Amino acid sequence: MMKQKLSLYFVMGSVDCTKDPLAVLDEAIEGGITMFQFREKGKGALIGVEKYRLAEKLFERCLAHNIPFIVNDDVDLALTLQADGVHVGQEDEAAERVRDRIGDRYLGVSVHNLNEVKQALSARADYVGLGPIFPTVSKEDAKQACGLAMIKHIRAHEKHVPLVAIGGITHQTAKQVIEAGADGIAVISAICRAEQIREQTKQLYEMVMDAKQKGGS
């Protein structure tokens, strides 16, 4: 079930959008996203009440379409909203502590290598987000790209871990990522910066599902 939810995972905050974030999410939902992460970080990011209000409106849209709503690195916000889960990076609040705080809600952890995957699983993570696979412009603090080889390496040792790949993934590379062993792709700019969000999201979804059906994952 989690592996299906990860198929097309859209990550977004207000700073990623060139137009109204609510309109962007609406079009992405119509295009077929299977999971959503509210990631309000970076220069100009909303804080406090403004951040909460945007999160609430985005959550309502996901709720209406039965799309899991994950909050990036803000357990308090996730619990207040009663969101579906929380995603944390290696420099954020410790995954073990987050698991204790959120109970049985979804827990996702950003990883860059096999050792971090094992640590995430010991913290009872529901899925891992591996990346960046390719160089990316969406995250100011992005680490060096780990490439498709890291997906294969992790999959060889942890066959069953739900794994979503993130970082510089485009329409041109989505198929390769699934074929390497990822259960899905997580994208920011491939949707946020698309000229035709609905249509280009639909194309991404179809590419991923086609690759998964052909044995990628």
Automatic annotation (TrEMBL):
Any one GO MF term held by the record is: thiamine-phosphate diphosphorylase activity
Q: Which family does it belong to?
A: Belongs to the thiamine-phosphate synthase family.
Q: Which cofactor does it need?
A: Mg(2+)
Which segments does the entry list as coiled coil? none
Per the record, its GO cellular-component terms are:
cytoplasm
Q: Is Iron-sulfur tagged as a keyword?
A: no
- Cross-referenced PANTHER family: THIAMINE-PHOSPHATE PYROPHOSPHORYLASE (PTHR20857), THIAMINE-PHOSPHATE SYNTHASE (PTHR20857:SF15)
Q: What is this protein called?
A: Thiamine-phosphate synthase
Q: Which reaction does it catalyse?
A: 2-[(2R,5Z)-2-carboxy-4-methylthiazol-5(2H)-ylidene]ethyl phosphate + 4-amino-2-methyl-5-(diphosphooxymethyl)pyrimidine + 2 H(+) = thiamine phosphate + CO2 + diphosphate; 2-(2-carboxy-4-methylthiazol-5-yl)ethyl phosphate + 4-amino-2-methyl-5-(diphosphooxymethyl)pyrimidine + 2 H(+) = thiamine phosphate + CO2 + diphosphate; 4-methyl-5-(2-phosphooxyethyl)-thiazole + 4-amino-2-methyl-5-(diphosphooxymethyl)pyrimidine + H(+) = thiamine phosphate + diphosphate
Describe its function: Condenses 4-methyl-5-(beta-hydroxyethyl)thiazole monophosphate (THZ-P) and 2-methyl-4-amino-5-hydroxymethyl pyrimidine pyrophosphate (HMP-PP) to form thiamine monophosphate (TMP).
Q: Which residues bind 2-[(2R,5Z)-2-carboxy-4-methylthiazol-5(2H)-ylidene]ethyl phosphate?
A: T136, V137, S138, G168, I188, S189
Q: Does the keyword Ligase apply?
A: no
Named in its record, the pathway it takes part in is: Cofactor biosynthesis; thiamine diphosphate biosynthesis; thiamine phosphate from 4-amino-2-methyl-5-diphosphomethylpyrimidine and 4-methyl-5-(2-phosphoethyl)-thiazole: step 1/1
User: Where, by residue number, does Mg(2+) bind?
Assistant: D73, D92
Q: Which UniProt keywords apply?
A: Magnesium, Metal-binding, Thiamine biosynthesis, Transferase
The record lists the lineage as: Bacteria, Bacillati, Bacillota, Bacilli, Bacillales
Q: Any idea where the Thiamine phosphate synthase/TenI domain is?
A: 8-191
Instruction: Write out the residues that bind 4-amino-2-methyl-5-(diphosphooxymethyl)pyrimidine.
Output: Q37, F38, R39, E40, K41, N72, S110, K139
The Enzyme Commission number assigned here is 2.5.1.3
Q: Alphabetically, which GO biological process terms does the record hold?
A: thiamine biosynthetic process; thiamine diphosphate biosynthetic process
